[in-house]
Design brief:
Helix content is 21%, strand content 32%. By secondary structure, the chain is α+β, with helices and mostly antiparallel strands. The protein has a single domain (3-189), classed as Peptide deformylase (Peptide Deformylase, Alpha-Beta Complex). A hairpin with a 5-residue loop joins strand 4 (77-81) and strand 5 (87-99). It has a five-stranded antiparallel β-sheet.
């Protein structure tokens, strides 16, 4: 495991440097991925550090999202990287509104090298607390909405393979022959 020195927002002025860790990502067969994560009572420095570790681990993978239980922490915390490369660190997230439907390829950092077709809502509104404990609402569509739904499923112990439109759509990325299909699958697999 590699530790990366990084200055965390808000601590730079005080002259502190925090360690941010790239943590190992658990694979689909680990039992914690099937457990419902516990709500966070209070957003404190340990939760902020967890958000930073999740973001650093997601970016190193690389991925489009990561839930705390994927690194062995059974708390309702996740990060999502949106279409515009913005990274959201969310505490106790929940979907409060949704509409429409989209079907597309999806993968998972805990199920490396595999993709399958999953149906998701086209647009979602997610309510959560940010790294400062302030309530936020985020409206997202398309791939970003898919990423939010995927990570919130993780926090409920649900894997993307549980939501496949058909088990026959699950396939190894390396076995795909069509270059365009493979490129799309690689992008989806980073979810």
């Amino acid at each position: 495991m590699t530790d990366i020195l990084k200055t965390i927002k808000g601590t730079q002025a005080m002259g502190k440097i925090q360690l941010v860790a790239v943590r190992p990502i658990l694979t689909f067969d680990h039992p914690i991925l099937r457990e419902k994560a516990k709500k966070v009572a209070r957003v404190d420095m340990s939760i902020q550090r967890l958000i930073d570790d999740l973001a650093e681990t997601m970016l190193a993978a690389p991925g489009a999202g990561l839930a705390a239980n994927q690194i062995g922490v059974a708390l309702r915390v996740c990060v999502v990287k949106g279409d515009d490369n913005q990274i959201w660190g969310l505490v106790n997230p929940e979907i409060v509104k949704f509409e429409g439907s989209q079907v597309g390829p999806e993968g998972c950092l805990s199920y490396p090298g595999w993709v399958g077709e999953v149906e998701r809502h086209e647009t979602v509104v997610v309510k959560a607390r940010n790294r400062r404990g302030k309530e936020v609402r985020i409206k997202a569509s398309g791939f970003t909405a898919r990423a939010f739904q995927h990570e919130l499923d993780h926090l409920d112990g649900v894997l993307f393979t549980d939501r496949l439109t058909n088990l026959g759509t699950l396939q190894r990325v390396e076995d795909m022959v069509n270059a365009e299909e493979r490129e799309e699958a690689v992008a989806a697999a980073s979810g």
